[in-house]
Amino acid sequence: MAPISTPQTPFGRVLTAMVTPLTADGALDLDGAQRLAAHLVDAGNDGLIINGTTGESPTTSNAEKADLVRAVLEAVGDRAHVVAGVGTNDTHHSIELARDAEKAGAHGLLTVTPYYNKPPQEGLLRHFTAIADSTELPVMLYDIPGRSGVPISTETIVRLAEHPRIVANKDAKGDLGRASWAITRSGLAWYSGDDMLNLPLLSVGAVGFVSVVSHVVTPELRAMLEAYNSGDVRKATEIHQKLLPVFTGMFRTQGVITTKAALALQGLPAGPLRLPLVELSAQETEQLKIDLAAGGVHL
Q1: What Å distances lie between residue 155 and 160, 183, 221, CA to CA?
Q2: Residues 166, 128 contacting (CB under 8 angstroms)
Q3: How far apart are CA 187 and CA 6, in angstroms?
Q4: How many domains does the chain have?
Q5: Annotated binding residue at 72?
Q6: β-strand 189-192 against 166-171: which pairing, if any?
Q7: What is the rounded distance in angstroms from the CA atom of residue 55 to the CA atom of residue 198?
Q8: d(Cα 237, Cα 224) in Å, to the nearest integer?
Q9: 173: closest CA among 155, 149, 156?
Q10: CATH number of the CATH domain containing 92
Q11: In angstroms, rounded to a whole number, what is the distance separating the alpha carbons of residues 49 and 168?
């Protein structure tokens, strides 16, 4: 049985964009993925994003993606929303991935803006609509112009929100003004996709987070969210400020790289990275330790 969702929180409130654990020889580590998923849910996540950018989706195959969804569902699918990343810059390929995820049992889909080919807004509208039409699963858009090169305009978000299965947006645009208007006009469930802006986005209507730093600070993020929702803004702000070194340190370089390093330091499943991503240097690892310790993370 899938975890409970509401129109306001269709995928839960605190979701980790989970890394994909690999074995020493670079193969998919399904046992490690199950152990990591269970650890994250035990820590307080009520959702997991599988096969997102943090899951090294550009370098995993269709079959690996489906296997990973099935493994994580087996481990935690009755306790957390398991959302499959299916976005690519090829609409046909994204539809294939969406249907594979649905067959594997995913509870929902994450669809990133097509990257590199820089489609116009009409192209984005048709792309996301085609994916949403291809399965019966609820869809979370993912707006991250820093990676994709193209923002989803507020007008396009509003039009996409008319689709009955497009129910949420992961916002990594970094523009609180645009977020305010898009939340108000679209009615979509809004998730922060930028850890540094988790608290500010709550203040303009976000319902939760799709986080990377939650690999190491899920209890703190949940406490911040609960404090804010209960009206204790001062406490929420204190938690936000305490976590600033973590927000900074986990993104000094590419987030997958630092996350896998942090997990390894804690003895949790992670493994190597697939090229073109590479491991942290010894100096970078020492800096990460300093940053995490400054934010209260025990290694």
Answers
A1: 9, 12, 31
A2: yes
A3: 13
A4: 1
A5: no
A6: parallel
A7: 20
A8: 8
A9: 149
A10: 3.20.20.70
A11: 14
Residues 78-120 have pLDDT tens digits of 999 999 999 999 999 999 999 999 999 999 999 999 999 999 9
Q: What is the pLDDT of residue 288?
A: 98
Q: For residue 190, how far is the Cα from the chain centroid?
A: 12
**pLDDT-derived band at 175, boundaries 50, 70, 90:** very high
Asked if pLDDT for residue 277 goes beyond 70, the answer is yes
The answer to whether residue 258 sits within a structural domain is no
C-alpha atoms less than 13 angstroms from C-alpha of 89 in its C-beta half-sphere: 12
Residue 275 lies in a domain: no
Residue 111 annotated in ligand binding: no
Q: Give the Cα separation of 39 and 50 in Å (integer).
A: 15
Does residue 1 carry a pLDDT above 70? no
CA 43 to chain centre: 16
Where in the sequence is the domain holding 81, given as residue range(s)?
A: 14-231
DSSP structural state of residue 108: E
The pLDDT-based confidence of 270 (bands split at 50, 70, 90) is: very high
Residue the block writes with tokens 């469930």: 189
| Res. 153 pLDDT band, cuts 50 70 90 | very high
Query: Is residue 261 one of the residues assigned to a domain?
Result: no
Residues annotated as catalytic (active site), given as ranges: 142, 170
The SS3 assignment for 109 reads: strand
Alpha helices in the chain (DSSP H): 30-43, 62-76, 91-104, 121-134, 145-148, 154-160, 176-186, 198-203, 214-229, 233-249, 255-265, 282-294
Stated pTM of the model: 0.96
Instruction: Specify if 144 maps to a domain.
Output: yes
Neighbours of 266 (CB within 10 A): 15
